[in-house]
Structures
1.
Amino acid sequence: MLKKKVLVIVAHPDDETLWVGGTLIRNKKRWDTTIVCLTRKSDKDRYLKFKKVIKVLGVKGFIYDLDDEHLNKPLNQQQFLKTISKHTKNKTFDILFTHGLNGEYGHPRHKEIYKAVVIAIKKNLIKSKQVFFFSYHKIKNRHQGYAIYNSSADILIKLNSNELLIKRELAIDVYGYDRGGIGFEENSAGLIEAFDKFKE
């Protein structure tokens, strides 16, 4: 059976796990997936962890070093397009996943990448038969808060116990985030993954 060609565009190492990890695990044998992570290549800790994660997910992973330190400065759109075109030029994907309008929990780079991807799609610089945006929002608690799925999302995917276990192992054990119910990432690596469809 011909595998679907899937592209995942994310800001940071771990976004591929938190927002779409379970879905990638579920479709590991059915999809030919490429993950493009736009920041933190020079962060050796996160870089090495990202490399471990893509092996578990069974995907091709590429990581770059777009600015993630100066969040008051907008994402360089030309740099984004130059980087992403290495993977999209003369290609049409079956499915594209990327950040949502609100940046899941409001992260500036997530929101900017959403906008950059939408512009690239409209200019035909990224071609995909289906486009899905991560659909989550932030919940406050007495610790770091966390992101939870939007119940009104176009697509809700409930993970099975094995998918959730692997996803949480990647988020907590590989990336090394806090456990015990207090960490943002642990609580955000949830049972349900949510996506909104691209609407022109």
2.
Amino acid sequence: MNLHYDVIIIGGGLAGLSLTRQLLLANNNLKIAVLEFRKHPVAEAIHKVGESLVEIGAHYFNNRLQLGEHLKTDQLKKAGLRFFFTHQNNEDISQRIEFGATFFPKTPSFQLDRGRFENYLAQLITEQGAHFIDEAKVLAIDLNQNSHTVSYSHQGEKQMLFSRWVIDASGRSGKLKRQLELTKAVEHDINTAWFRIKGKLDLDTWSSQADWLKVAPRDFRYLSTNHLMGKGYWTWLIPLASNCTSIGIVADAALHPFNEINHLPNALEWLKKYEPQLATKLATDQYEIIDFHSLKHYSHDCEQVFSAQRWALTGEAGVFLDPFYSPGSDFIALSNEFISDLIINDLAGFDIKLKAAYYNKQYLELFQNFLLVYQNQYLLMGYPGTMIHKVIWDYAVYWGIISLLYFNKKITDINFMQTFSSAMHKLVVLNKKVQTNFHNYINDPHAFPVKHFTDTMSYQFLQDWNTNLMQSYDDSALFQLLNNNLAYLQLIAEQYYQGKSLIPSELELETL
């Protein structure tokens, strides 16, 4: 067995496997070893959460990693995010205020069966020449100036490998993160519990109300990432291609203590109290619950993720925000783009010291700026009008700025990002002000009025900004488009500061 590698990746989950795939696509002569603690192949459906992809993560897997055929044939195409807000006792979904799309957006996204996807990736990278070692328990990581050493046990025997680069993709165990004392807490205090059931959980069967059934095409609600929302919490319903359904509870610890959801009986009782229609469906239709997990204080930060000393952290080994809006795979995509660029440049003989420092700063600042979307915002989930307008805002920032930069491969273009830095700073300030402003209106019955159903894509600018992601722009055109979008965001903010609902026909691009 070869003992010397260009890269050793600790962790063969989604982050580590996708980074391996990306590196081998960039240079198929690279020698890469992947050390995975679990036995492979893993079980479908019950492997891991993180099953909902949004645009950046979907584009990364679909286009950057060239996995489109698998996504289209072996996973489920996603009908966007869909939100149902509390109405009385939540016993009739047709009476709940609903926010979601009625047609597929131009930019595709998917629902992932993580077990199926990671099995496929592990097989794929092995065929590309990577050395994938399952049931490998990492014992020690020794970082040195010229070559790093990783010791691990496999089938009862101690082994040792050497490499120029070491990547920690070990998830929450954070092997290298803990060794280097890089753990950093965040104040955002949410807890979660989740389980999978066998079978299809189809929301269209929850009501026979004809007008409600006409709102969205058949199976459109089923193919959405559905959110059942209430004050301080949301519950996800995600369909999986393995004919299972993922169900999760995510709650603000201040409003819903962890001990109310940390075990399956508790979680089911919690659902009876806050989401009784879901609880009744689970009981009366006798769905088989095939796993259960819970996690306290989900979010975490990191002191450093990339180093010119040829180590890096990716995925949950580095940072994790919140499951809401499904940013996990987005941050895997972003970190892997930075890491791949550093490794390829280093192996080509370039000095990466300045790049590593810049990428590290950019990534961690992006995490902090995204954290504003979540921290202290779970209370808003109990106020439909306010929360819908927050979601519109968050979509707009995501599609109009962040995704546009990623899709046009500007995240690792330091010159472009520096040119755009003053505009990004304006966005950060604006976003912070808007996120804070929502709390001014939660007790105002006249603020942010909404209809019983709102179609996400009825806002033409959102439809346009999503479609724009599928186009390529030269630097000049992209810079102009980003600044136009920022100016439009400022117009939206002015409406929000007054507690006004966005009416699509009243907010036109011509007003810029």
3.
Amino acid sequence: MNNKRTETRPLSLAARLWIAVDRLYPPCANQVFFEGMGSFDPEQWKAAVTKASDANPGTRLVLRGALRSCRWIDSGVAPPIREIHGSGWDGQGSDGAPFLESSFSPRQGPTCEVLLVHGNPARVAFRSHHAIMDGLGVATWAEDVFRALRGEEPLGSEHLMTEYDLLNLQKGNKSKPLPHQYIAPTGKADGQETDMVWKRKTLTKKYPRLLIQLLLLAAQEAWRHADGKVRFGIPVDLRYRQKNLRSTGNLANAIYMDIDPTTTADQITAEIEKRLSSFSDGQLTWEDTVGNYVPVWLMCKGIRFEGSRSQRSGRYRLSGLISNGGRIDIDKFSCDDFKAATLFGIPVAAPFIPFSMSLVGTKNGIEMLLRMPKNMSTDGRLEAALDTIANSLQSIS
């Protein structure tokens, strides 16, 4: 047992949703990989993870209570370490990586872990249940583990905040839930399989307004398969709204962009800047109002129904998610025995999220990863979409 904290964090509606998604389509996890050269001393890593978890108690959370009384508490138990012999995995996709299929128990714990993946290149994965962290939360934790490995003091973080503490929650009129009318970038589902698959591609050039270009290119992919409306969600980190905030929590909120064949890059840029500067988020729907009273088992039924309906009709609440992790200082994630050269993150996907892309850049390039339901990827559609988007970027850079 470590320096256990007594404060608790409420279970937000988004966290409840991700717990339900994880029950149906595990794992619903943040998975951030650091790839480079070196070797691992498990005992040193265990000591570093323990020290970092004392400074970042959000890595030790477990769930207690029911419905609106649900709270995350500090278990006092540091995340475990698993050693993986990864010489047979190329790190370019989900094939050959069964060790990434394990999920986390919110109530029993642990809700985070570290994987030491031996091979050439060597890889370290920091994994967490998405109900307790977002991608930046994982990076915050990972940075402190590497600080401990270098003999430095962890910076630490708070663990009690939810996204509701940072959103511009609007009272009064409720907005309507998103309609199911948007087409997917790889067409319609083929079969009933609910497993998720992903592929990774490394970009070596610099691309102006990369996120904007990807939104337009992904929309073009959707229109290759069908006529229809396109809408993408863009997760936005809310930490910037509180000065010097370091948190491992899930503090992201999506903004949604409708795109039609006449939409330009300038229009998307202006709209995103307008949304961010005006804090135009946090308008609650009736689903948000009643969601905290819905048990997870019943929420699972609704999510399963939505996924099945969306895949049968080919119409979704959104065409996909595109997450931009920004540019990361990769040198923060190295120690004496391991030197990271790049990192990549595996985004969350589900049958009702037909297209999920993540981006993260370092001084050595940009990692672009696309994940989707397996039945949306048949006949090489995942690879074709990723290649077409990457090749189109090359032509406009």
4.
Amino acid sequence: MFHRLGDTGYLDADGRLWFCGRKAERVETADGPLYTEQVEPIFNTHADVRRCALIGLGERGRQRPAIVVEPTSWDFVTSSADCRRFARELREIAKRFPHTSGIMLFYFREKFPVDVRHNAKIHRLTLTRWAAEGATGYESDPKR
């Protein structure tokens, strides 16, 4: 039995259900969709990442994926040099997995906008608007 909730997932060959994330929060790139629950845990492995959010910039179907990071301490990103270093480290993590290898743009934000009822559910669409309206992003060279 399936019930429509706005979530995405799939059943694998062994019949296990894999949760991929909210349908509304997926990023639709030219290379295919990216889902929050398949991407964010990869970057959350960095010791200085408290949590992160996958966002998509641009038109659906051709969105550019980016990661917004809430660091464990704002002291890690006090200068542009710190942010560039952090972005390079995150890029190294991204290159380890085929589905994240195209992510080269990183933003840093002290606190994420969250649902007031849960204080945990990240408002990714708010972060997308914030980035699109001129927040400073740090791009890592794909060859690095």
